[in-house]
Protein backbone atom coordinates (compact mmCIF):
# COMPACT_ATOMS: atom_id res chain seq x y z
CA UNK A 1 0.00 0.00 0.00
CA UNK A 2 1.37 3.42 -0.95
CA UNK A 3 0.38 6.71 0.62
CA UNK A 4 0.60 9.89 -1.41
CA UNK A 5 1.01 13.20 0.41
CA UNK A 6 1.31 16.27 -1.80
CA UNK A 7 2.85 14.34 -4.67
CA UNK A 8 5.42 12.44 -2.58
CA UNK A 9 4.86 8.73 -2.23
CA UNK A 10 5.59 7.13 1.12
CA UNK A 11 6.12 3.47 1.94
CA UNK A 12 3.90 1.72 4.41
CA UNK A 13 4.51 -1.27 6.65
CA UNK A 14 2.89 -4.45 5.34
CA UNK A 15 2.40 -7.78 7.13
CA UNK A 16 4.59 -10.62 5.88
CA UNK A 17 6.05 -13.91 7.03
CA UNK A 18 9.66 -13.13 6.07
CA UNK A 19 10.78 -10.86 8.90
CA UNK A 20 9.68 -10.42 12.47
CA UNK A 21 9.95 -7.75 15.09
CA UNK A 22 10.11 -9.00 18.65
CA UNK A 23 9.13 -6.76 21.51
CA UNK A 24 10.38 -7.60 24.98
CA UNK A 25 8.65 -5.15 27.32
CA UNK A 26 10.01 -4.14 30.68
CA UNK A 27 6.48 -4.00 32.06
CA UNK A 28 3.91 -6.79 32.06
CA UNK A 29 1.12 -4.23 32.31
CA UNK A 30 -0.91 -4.43 29.04
CA UNK A 31 -1.98 -0.79 29.34
CA UNK A 32 1.66 0.30 29.06
CA UNK A 33 2.85 -2.06 26.31
CA UNK A 34 1.05 -3.08 23.17
CA UNK A 35 2.03 -6.08 21.07
CA UNK A 36 1.72 -6.57 17.33
CA UNK A 37 0.55 -10.06 16.49
CA UNK A 38 1.59 -9.94 12.83
CA UNK A 39 5.25 -9.60 11.78
CA UNK A 40 6.17 -6.51 9.75
CA UNK A 41 8.17 -5.75 6.63
CA UNK A 42 8.85 -2.54 4.78
CA UNK A 43 7.44 -2.64 1.28
CA UNK A 44 9.71 -1.91 -1.64
CA UNK A 45 9.28 1.65 -2.85
CA UNK A 46 11.94 1.68 -5.55
CA UNK A 47 9.56 0.57 -8.31
CA UNK A 48 6.93 3.13 -7.31
CA UNK A 49 9.25 6.17 -7.21
CA UNK A 50 10.55 7.60 -10.49
CA UNK A 51 14.09 8.87 -11.11
CA UNK A 52 13.01 12.52 -10.94
CA UNK A 53 11.42 12.00 -7.54
CA UNK A 54 14.54 10.19 -6.28
CA UNK A 55 16.63 13.22 -7.22
CA UNK A 56 14.29 15.51 -5.25
CA UNK A 57 14.43 13.32 -2.12
CA UNK A 58 18.15 13.83 -1.37
CA UNK A 59 19.01 14.34 2.30
CA UNK A 60 20.90 17.47 3.28
CA UNK A 61 23.22 16.97 6.26
CA UNK A 62 24.58 20.04 8.02
CA UNK A 63 28.31 20.07 8.67
CA UNK A 64 29.07 19.51 12.34
CA UNK A 65 30.14 22.73 14.01
CA UNK A 66 32.53 23.11 16.85
CA UNK A 67 30.67 23.65 20.09
CA UNK A 68 30.07 27.32 20.87
CA UNK A 69 31.07 28.16 24.41
CA UNK A 70 30.13 31.16 26.52
CA UNK A 71 31.22 32.48 29.88
CA UNK A 72 28.59 32.96 32.58
CA UNK A 73 29.14 35.25 35.56
CA UNK A 74 27.69 35.77 39.02
CA UNK A 75 28.50 39.37 39.96
CA UNK A 76 28.65 39.98 43.74
CA UNK A 77 30.15 42.66 45.99
CA UNK A 78 33.01 40.57 47.35
CA UNK A 79 33.27 37.75 44.77
CA UNK A 80 32.69 37.04 41.11
CA UNK A 81 31.67 33.59 39.86
CA UNK A 82 32.79 32.37 36.43
CA UNK A 83 31.51 29.29 34.56
CA UNK A 84 31.55 27.92 31.01
CA UNK A 85 28.37 26.85 29.20
CA UNK A 86 27.85 25.35 25.76
CA UNK A 87 25.26 27.01 23.52
CA UNK A 88 22.57 24.76 22.06
CA UNK A 89 21.95 25.61 18.36
CA UNK A 90 18.81 27.47 17.26
CA UNK A 91 18.49 29.41 20.51
CA UNK A 92 17.45 26.52 22.74
CA UNK A 93 19.53 27.64 25.73
CA UNK A 94 22.80 26.41 27.21
CA UNK A 95 24.30 23.34 28.83
CA UNK A 96 26.69 23.77 31.79
CA UNK A 97 30.22 22.62 31.01
CA UNK A 98 31.77 23.68 34.30
CA UNK A 99 30.70 24.64 37.80
CA UNK A 100 31.07 28.26 38.93
CA UNK A 101 34.56 29.18 40.10
CA UNK A 102 34.68 32.14 42.50
CA UNK A 103 37.38 34.78 42.53
CA UNK A 104 39.10 35.98 44.77
CA UNK A 105 37.98 33.20 47.12
CA UNK A 106 40.08 30.88 44.94
CA UNK A 107 42.03 31.39 41.74
CA UNK A 108 39.04 31.09 39.40
CA UNK A 109 41.16 31.75 36.31
CA UNK A 110 43.51 28.85 37.13
CA UNK A 111 40.62 26.51 37.98
CA UNK A 112 38.90 27.44 34.70
CA UNK A 113 42.12 26.73 32.80
CA UNK A 114 42.55 23.32 34.46
CA UNK A 115 38.93 22.38 33.75
CA UNK A 116 39.26 23.28 30.06
CA UNK A 117 42.44 21.23 29.75
CA UNK A 118 40.42 18.14 30.72
CA UNK A 119 38.02 18.77 27.78
CA UNK A 120 39.82 17.65 24.58
CA UNK A 121 36.93 18.82 22.41
CA UNK A 122 37.61 22.47 23.34
CA UNK A 123 40.14 23.83 20.86
CA UNK A 124 43.27 25.64 22.04
CA UNK A 125 42.04 28.80 20.34
CA UNK A 126 38.71 28.64 22.22
CA UNK A 127 40.56 28.12 25.50
CA UNK A 128 42.73 31.19 24.93
CA UNK A 129 39.76 33.35 23.93
CA UNK A 130 37.68 32.28 26.95
CA UNK A 131 40.56 32.76 29.40
CA UNK A 132 41.32 36.22 27.95
CA UNK A 133 37.65 37.18 28.29
CA UNK A 134 37.63 35.89 31.88
CA UNK A 135 40.72 37.99 32.62
CA UNK A 136 39.06 41.12 31.19
CA UNK A 137 35.90 40.59 33.26
CA UNK A 138 37.84 39.89 36.48
CA UNK A 139 39.91 43.07 35.94
CA UNK A 140 36.75 45.08 35.26
CA UNK A 141 35.12 43.62 38.39
CA UNK A 142 38.18 44.59 40.46
CA UNK A 143 38.06 48.16 39.16
CA UNK A 144 34.36 48.57 39.92
CA UNK A 145 34.61 46.86 43.34
CA UNK A 146 37.38 49.20 44.55
CA UNK A 147 35.96 52.45 43.20
Automatic annotation (TrEMBL):
GO cellular component labels: ribonucleoprotein complex; ribosome
Domain of life: Eukaryota
Residue ranges the record marks as coiled coil: none
Keyword terms, alphabetized: Ribonucleoprotein, Ribosomal protein
Keyword Oxidoreductase: no
Family matches, as InterPro entries: PSRP-3/Ycf65_sf, Ribosomal_cS23-like
The protein's assembly and partners: Part of the 30S ribosomal subunit.
Family stated for the protein in its record: Belongs to the chloroplast-specific ribosomal protein cS23 family.
Name of the protein: 30S ribosomal protein 3, chloroplastic
Annotated source species: Salvia divinorum (Maria pastora)
Primary gene name: PSRP3
Amino acid sequence: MMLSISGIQRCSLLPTKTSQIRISPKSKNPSICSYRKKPLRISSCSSAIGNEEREKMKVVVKAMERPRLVLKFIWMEKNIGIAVDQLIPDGHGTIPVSPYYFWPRKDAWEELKLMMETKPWISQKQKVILLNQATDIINFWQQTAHS
